[in-house]
Amino acid sequence: MLTPYPSNIFKTEEALHYIKQTLESGNTSGDNTYTGLCHNFLKEHFGFPNVLLTTSCTHALEMTALLLDLQPGDEVILPAYTFVSTANAYLLRGAKLVFADSGKRNPNIAPAEIERLITPKTKAVVIVHYSGVACDMDRIMSSVQKHGIALIEDCAHAFDSYYKGKALGTFGTFSTFSFHSTKNITCGEGGALVINDPNYIRRACIIREKGTNRTEFFQQKVNKYDWQDIGSSYLMADVLAALLYSQLIHYKEIQQKRIAAWETYYNMLSELADKHFSLPQIPDYATNNANIFYFLCPNSAERTKLLDYLNSKGISASFHYLTLYKSPYFKQKYIGNELPNSVEISECIIRLPLVTNTGFTDVVHVCDMIKEYYKNV
Ligand SMILES: *Cc1c(COP(=O)(O)O)cnc(C)c1O
Predict the structure, then answer these.
(1) Strand partners, 52
(2) If you take atom 2 of ligand 1, which residue's CA is the nearest one?
(3) Residue 27 needs a FRET pair 20 to 30 A away by CA distance; which of 111, 159, 263, 298 works?
(4) What is the per-residue DSSP string for 297-322?
(5) What is the residue with the minimal CA distance to atom 15 of ligand 1?
(6) Roughly what angle, to the nearest 10 degrees, separates helices 340-348 and 300-312?
(7) What H or E segment, with its residue span, contains residue 207?
(8) Alpha carbon separation from 198 to 37, 173, 295, 360, 366 (Å, rounded)
(9) Do residues 71 and 121 make contact, with C-beta atoms less than 8 angstroms apart?
């Protein structure tokens, strides 16, 4: 059965070699050789001024909430159409979640929503570049800059993706990446915090190291380290960074494979799309990193029928996020407007199987099944 996410690890000769090296050196904990190599690689290839590997994107998001010193009553604007981690990070600090709608049949946050929702209590705006396709950054930057509000880019989908030629992750005060096994580049579980505002670097290192200045101790800036601030344990183990590095050095091949599968889906489904569903739009300012291949059915009933059909044929196509303001946890607490675009996307989306190892014949098979389905309806 084709699943959306079977092993997504790109087979490389280096992986076992690098892991073996960490085991033999005994330096398996955080901030050792491979963490340093990953930090430098990410800085050099994507123009990030400062990067810290973390245990996950969820934890990198939690770090942004700690770094911004969010207090109960502070407001954070975020898309309703996202993964729970984007919301939990701020809720854990007691901040008030202010959910924004998506664009019309476009999963990214609608820039006009940010303007609508900003109040004197707004401390941060969080955006998600859904499926690695950039949000409308010129409009978003002008809103946050006008009001002096921090911007966080949740780049969990957005590795090696660009807005007008500039890497996603370089726009926000902070941005967060995921190396979970569902993402383009993976080491099983992992993430990164990118810090674009240098004022936050020292405190980020302290928060990541349990509230201590252990990083400065390792850099031989101080001769002992001690408790300086609140914090937690957000370092990726170097043995995982070794696996991550074995993937990063091959990222161009990984992206090419994914983009080839994505484009095959797109081309093979184009003729059906005019009649039965809409394919994703990539604006001129954005690139496609093929994190997700999705399309939107006209309504929920048709989505469910097609999904059931594909699943019955052993193809694990799937839906995606349920808009967060209607989730079991949040629906009683929600006091804002209806957000119809996010609801429509929740109800109409289908994702097709796409991982780094998805081959051409897998894609053709899925497209043939979809064609077969529409012959009979
Ligand atoms: C995957 C994902 C996360 C969480 O990433 P982890 O590394 O698993 O913590 C956060 N936000 C979005 C949008 C995601 O897709």
Answers:
(1) 193
(2) 156
(3) 159
(4) -SSHHHHHHHHHHHHHTTB--B--PP
(5) 156
(6) 30
(7) helix 201-208
(8) 21, 9, 39, 44, 47
(9) no
pTM of the complete model beyond 0.70: yes
Distance CA 334, CA 227 (A): 38
User: What is the Cα–Cα distance from 285 to 208, expressed in whole angstroms?
Assistant: 34
For residue 155, report the distance from its CA to the centre of ligand 1, in Å: 8
Structure tokens at 338: 């209806």
- Residue 58 beta carbon below 6 angstroms from any ligand 1 atom: yes
DSSP state for residue 189 in the 8-state scheme: S
- Nearest-CA residue for ligand 1 atom 14 is 156
In whole angstroms, what is the distance from residue 255 CA to residue 363 CA?
16
Residues 23-28: contacts with CB under 8 Å, at least 24 apart: 23/239, 27/238, 28/237, 28/238, 28/239
Q: Which amino acid is at 331?
A: K
Question: Token pair for residue 53?
Answer: 């590997």
**Percent with pLDDT over 90 in the chain:** 95
Q: What is the mean pLDDT of residues 105-118?
A: 98
pLDDT digits 0-9 by tens, 206-227: 999 999 999 999 989 999 999 9
CA proximity to 243, closest of 6, 10, 2: 10
